[in-house]
Amino acid sequence: MIRFEHVSKRYADGTTAVADLSFEVAEGELVTLVGPSGCGKTTTMKMVNRLIEPSSGQIFLDGEDIATIDPVQLRRRIGYVIQQVGLFPHKTVLENTATVPHLLGWQRGKAGERAAELLDLVGLDPSVYGDRYPDQLSGGQRQRVGVARALAADPPVLLMDEPFGAVDPVVREHLQNEFLRLQAQVRKTVLFVTHDIEEAVRLGDRIAVYGAGRIEQFDAPAAVLGSPATPYVADFVGADRGLKRLTVTPIEPGDLEQPPIVHLTDPLPKAAARLAAEGARWAVVLDDQDNLHGWIVADAAATASEGTVGEHARRMEAWLPVGSSLKRAFSTMLQHDAGWIAVLDGDRFLGVLTPAKLHEALRRSIDADAQDIARSDVELQTVADA
Ligand SMILES: Nc1ncnc2c1ncn2[C@@H]1O[C@H](COP(=O)(O)OP(=O)(O)OP(=O)(O)O)[C@@H](O)[C@H]1O
């Protein structure tokens, strides 16, 4: 969808911002460009919508050399979101969102409808926020309007330059998650600039790690974290790779423990006997449809001689869908101050993740990586020997 072929940019003062870049972003793929300040990320991005012209090389959009496309026409095919958002202060949120459809000459009503639809999509109720002005919004809400505006004319490509850079870490994580959900729906081809490796790992289908003016590694997040291509990447990714692996390692059914299970309608003595027989201190409580309700502790079950489990069960709020990252599991545990969390497949209870199991899963993931690295070393050695 977007292809760079030997692209370089030298500014008038002699600064080489990027040199000989070649890479490709597939349709519907989200590629993050990550690297320290001044390494050429923004220059790369601005060459795609021709805010900056390359000194040499070619960039193709859907097979077409963008140098041959009129810049105004080109920019209509490309949504652009920047950190400063750049909303018009004297226009309402709805008018701001409808900017591009207006420029494209859409009927007023149609443009307004589209803008409202987009605001809804980014989680802003148009009936609440549509008539507000940008200074009546929080920083996070302004960023959402920026994303809605970039998507309004339904461009196939989205360029995002540190779009969540100016908000605090909690709002940032929120916006990242919302954006991932949104991207799963709209499947745009996205180039996303960030200097934050965590953000790059969380959002990117693939990551381009920039050194000074060049890409040091272009790979899937797990590969960048697990087998950095150069010492520079290893250094940039950081020494705490184990922690970062939390982000890319999913909870798998095999990671889960199976505690005793009782049902809401079970008589208490029966549940108590079950717990005693298994030597368990607590059991998971399911409802009649086998959906998660909560848990019951052995003491509560043993001291009451009548009634049902439902009368003594506690609700369980700490749960996650299977496949969620270990990082989410960890933060859910902390947030609920829970010693374990329930893992579900849809509504179906699969088992529980405990801190010990979480640690095991993390170890497994790091070890698998180490083996991968060892294997690729061996392969390189074999090639060198041949
Ligand atoms: N108009 C310009 N004239 C001269 N040099 C420039 C110009 N714009 C950028 N540069 C230089 O080109 C290099 C790459 O800049 P660029 O903005 O692409 O980096 P970046 O990776 O996006 O950095 P940051 O994360 O700080 O935004 C830097 O050394 C910068 O100083």
From TrEMBL:
Assigned keywords, A-Z: ATP-binding, Nucleotide-binding, Repeat, Transport
Enzyme Commission designation: 7.6.2.9
One term under GO cellular component: membrane
Residue span, ABC transporter domain: 2-237
Record's keyword annotation contains Transport: yes
GO biological process: glycine betaine transport
Pfam families recorded: ABC_tran (PF00005)
Top-level EC class as recorded in UniProt: translocase
MF annotations from Gene Ontology: ABC-type quaternary ammonium compound transporting activity; ATP binding; ATP hydrolysis activity
The keyword Zinc is assigned to this record: no
Family indicated by similarity: Belongs to the ABC transporter superfamily.
Protein name: ABC-type quaternary amine transporter
Species in which this protein is naturally found: Streptomyces buecherae
